[in-house]
Amino acid sequence: MSASAERRSSDSIAGSRGTRELPSPKVLRLIMSAYPPLLFAGVRVAHIADDWTSVRATHRVRPWNWNPNRSAFGGTLYSMTDPFFGIMARGQLGRGYRVWTSAASIEFIAPGREMVTATMSLPSDHVAAIRDATSEGGKSITAHTAEIVSDQGVLVARATQQLYVRRVNQ
Hints:
The protein is an alpha+beta fold.
């Protein structure tokens, strides 16, 4: 296979998803709040920073979305964090990067019974290190943690994600 055919092949595997521009943080916040898996679970995206360095998502536990223990479902708690580290990385890195969560875990600490909030942060210096690690075709694998807390300040869960980033050919 010629070098140009190999390049075209790897471009089609990477697809346009790795290089597509994200909408603005404000527009993406509205889109994500209306995204059916989050919407029907009762998860709302309250804030996405203009510089893509932080996201805050909320979930109000109600009779129609609580588990048999009258607390938030574990899957719902995790969904509050699931896409956002990757989105923050893509927003800061810009086009030309393949970003996905390669591993994840969640530790349930206390039941979430009313309003819970997940706050995620991806500082720009962490993204600069990712950009440096991938500048010569290498990959970056980094771990990021979000805490989910109740309105009373009780730690409900801690979610950790392993973010995989690699540059794609453009």
